[in-house]
From TrEMBL:
Domain FAD-binding FR-type: 1-103
Signal peptide span: none
Name of the protein in its database record: Ketosteroid-9-alpha-hydroxylase
InterPro entries, per the entry: 2Fe-2S_ferredoxin-like_sf, 2Fe-2S_ferredoxin-type, 2Fe2S_fd_BS, Beta-grasp_dom_sf, Cbr1-like_FAD-bd_dom, FAD-bd_FR_type, Flavoprot_Pyr_Nucl_cyt_Rdtase, FNR_nucleotide-bd
Pfam families: FAD_binding_6, Fer2, NAD_binding_1
An example molecular function term from Gene Ontology annotations: flavin adenine dinucleotide binding
2Fe-2S ferredoxin-type domain boundaries: 249-336
Cofactor: FAD
Keyword terms, alphabetized: 2Fe-2S, FAD, Flavoprotein, Iron, Iron-sulfur, Metal-binding, Oxidoreductase
């Protein structure tokens, strides 16, 4: 549980929640720029739902963890946060997760964001300026000037880091919607950089096409996609015991430098078995969409309900998702 220390009204339809993390949980809630938190949102129908919100704060600037939430039409979780959360409230939160994070804060960056897609991009931007030596260019698309989240903060950062930070605003009310051609023209001078992009699907598609036109290598392009979880990663975990576990496999799991041997019932996922045995398994969604539980099979065989965010190269390299993996062989060795 974390406590809401402050609520910041960013725009007419977006607000930030600043969290106070208990001292005993601070190591567990350490995060990398661009990661997200999974919040437990109360629901009259199902008891609760889980929603993932990106951290807009930076772990390199000394500020408290902050997520920014934009109201969306029909968005149950975002509307509940915008309507009901107040200072002093406590919220159940899973530890930070996500792979949308730069490998090197000294490497020059080209950032693209649209609307609330600025949240993880802002974390990366502030981290590069505060914790590295990178030059940063941000292209930020919005409907109009009043829709620009973090407008004042971006002005202050640009003034403080004029030699390293360039912010290019793209306003639909002035320039129209960005196109692959216009985005390619913006990107060409920055082809050697690493690009990070986040926003609605049409914007992301246009940016990808623009970067391809500009000749940026595909392995320099990193995208974050917002998804709503259909399940509840906070729900109680039930692992078969007794006769139901008679045909279980054996799992040898290497996690954080320690090795654990576990009984792995064939109907249970690896993450569920690890959590049931008190291990701090990395996970956020338990649906295969976030990649937090990606691990490597070093011996034995598993099957996955679906491959989620893993691509063919990941699978060929031996990666699996712990929240989707169930044992096929009698013994399996896994490394996180």
């Amino acid at each position: 549980m974390v406590t809401v220390a402050a609520v910041v009204e960013e725009t007419a339809d977006a607000r930030s929640l600043v969290f106070e993390v208990p001292p005993e949980c601070r190591d567990r809630f350490a995060y990398r720029p661009g990661q997200f938190l999974t919040l437990r949102i109360p629901s009259d129908r199902t008891g609760s739902v889980a929603r993932c919100y990106s951290l807009a704060s930076s772990p390199h600037t000394g500020e408290a963890p902050k997520v920014t939430v934009k109201r969306t039409a029909g968005g149950y979780g975002s509307n509940w946060v915008c309507d009901h959360v107040a200072v002093g409230d406590t919220i159940e939160v899973l530890p930070p997760s996500g792979l949308f994070t730069p490998p090197d804060l000294d490497e020059d960056l080209l950032l693209f964001a649209a609307g609330s897609g600025i949240t993880p991009v802002m974390s990366i931007l502030k981290s590069a300026l505060g914790g590295g030596r990178a030059a940063v260019t941000l292209v930020y698309a919005n409907r109009d000037e009043n829709s620009v989240i973090f407008a004042e903060e971006l002005r202050e950062l640009t003034a403080a880091h004029a030699d390293r930070l360039t912010v290019i605003h793209q306003l639909e009310s002035v320039q129209g919607l960005p196109t692959p051609a216009s985005l390619a023209a913006l990107a060409r001078p920055y082809r050697p950089r690493r690009a990070f992009l986040c926003g609605p699907t049409p914007f992301m598609d246009a940016v990808r096409a623009g970067l391809d036109k500009a000749g940026m290598p595909a392995d320099h392009v990193h995208a974050e996609v917002f998804t709503s979880l259909s399940g509840d990663p906070f729900e109680e975990i039930v692992v078969p015991e007794g006769d139901d576990a008679a045909d279980a496999a054996t799992a040898v799991v290497e996690l954080d430098g320690e090795t654990h041997e576990l009984v792995w019932p064939r109907s249970s996922t690896l993450v569920d078995v690890m959590l049931a045995n008190g291990l701090d398994a990395p996970y956020s969604c338990r649906e295969g969409e976030c990649g937090s539980c990606a691990c490597t099979v070093t011996d034995g065989e598993v099957e996955m309900a679906h491959q989620g965010m893993l691509d063919a190269d990941d699978i060929a390299a031996g990666y699996v998702l712990g929240c989707q993996a169930r044992p096929v062989s009698d013994a399996v060795s896994i490394e996180f």
